[in-house]
Amino acid sequence: MISERIQKIEPSKTVELTARTARMRREGIPVTGLNVGEPDFDTPPHICRAAKEAIDSGFTRYTPVMGIPELREAIAGKLARENKVRYATDEITIGPGAKQCIYAALLALCDPGDEVIIPYPCWVSYTEMVRMAGGVPVPVRTAEDFSLDPEAVRAAVTERTKAVLINTPNNPTGAVYSKESLEALARLAGESDFYIISDEVYECMVYDGRKHVSVSSLSEDARRRTVLVNSFSKTYAMTGWRLGYLAADREVTAAVNVVQSQMVSAVNSIAQKAGAAALAGSQDCVADMVREYDRRRTYLSGRLNRIPGVSCRQGEGAFYLLPDVTAFLGRTYHGKKMEDDLDLAEYLLERARVAVVPGSAFLAPGHLRITYAASLETLKDAADAIEAALGELEPSV
Ligand code: PMP
Ligand code: GLU
What we know:
Layout: H1 4-7, H2 13-26, E1 32-33, H3 45-56, H4 69-82, E2 92-95, H5 98-109, E3 115-120, H6 125-132, E4 136-141, H7 150-156, E5 161-167, H8 179-192, E6 195-199, H9 220-225, E7 226-231, E8 244-247, H10 250-263, H11 269-280, H12 284-305, E9 320-321, E10 332-333, E11 336-337, H13 341-352, E12 354-355, E13 357-358, E14 368-371, H14 376-391
Parallel strand pairs: 1-12, 3-4, 3-5, 5-6, 6-7
Antiparallel strand pairs: 2-8, 7-8, 9-14, 10-11, 13-14
């Protein structure tokens, strides 16, 4: 019998949908995947070269649990330089992706019944990871424009609040939290004594002159309370390498290392060498990719907003759009009624052959999450197909 704990956990919708589109393609059905949030670029060659050198030089054994010193030093340098916050190398731990780092942090922090406030719409995995760690997810709405609403967070704080889990730039909304809202959150964390888990995996993808702010850089108290999580997946197009990290106060990092020592031993040694090369090398590759995402964002949001009934914010960061499609709910295709965003996403997959994720998976019913991490040509074809399919829906009588 499967444990009650796991029986209550939803599988990841984003991961599930990726498997489904792969299956469709294997069966010869052409489908455009705008579902999975993953750079369409290849990992830059100098990073791959470092990995090949690691293999050739026999760098193929277990590393220390927290990761190789070379990589942790490079991360400490990067955090000081770019994020304006200082961490010693023993306050940094490498994990197999930001996803696992967040889960390890939750395991290290949550006692059964502890509450974790999650501003929503939010990434699919947060609520389930909190539940797996024995905690209680407490979703709290963001403002109308998806910005962080510190007053709404304040209203949700109880004596069981252990942490607030934020993600800026945000998946799925594209919101970039302002310095003022993060300052208010940090003050609240101090007053009410909770941690902030800050997922910053999209930090380099900010547009329109917006700046990413790391909440831990705002004060010494904020730094002490924050678990900063980041990853190589998005910044360097390294999703398959499985390489992420967290930085936190020594006490928290030590607890996370206990989890990691029993759970992962250490991250793939080759990927760690690749990560060190990514941080040591020129960052032009990142700037090039971000410039391209920005063009795609403008293009796709423009196309979607021209479809009657679709309303879509451009977002200021990450590589997602979250169009509001409530106008299409209740409409029909050959008698089949679109009851909700799940029906609509299914319809687009079947009719337009475009995979998008239902907003409900991100606690955003009535929306669809669409990634623009795809070529402009792909986005154009997908937008044409979505427009045509939505145009075929008929008002129900
Ligand atoms: N956080 C957010 C908000 C994400 O969208 C993702 C998806 N990649 C992750 C964390 C996990 O990233 P990683 O590949 O580093 O596990
Ligand atoms: N984070 C990406 C997404 O939201 C990748 C898949 C996942 O891990 O959820 O699509």
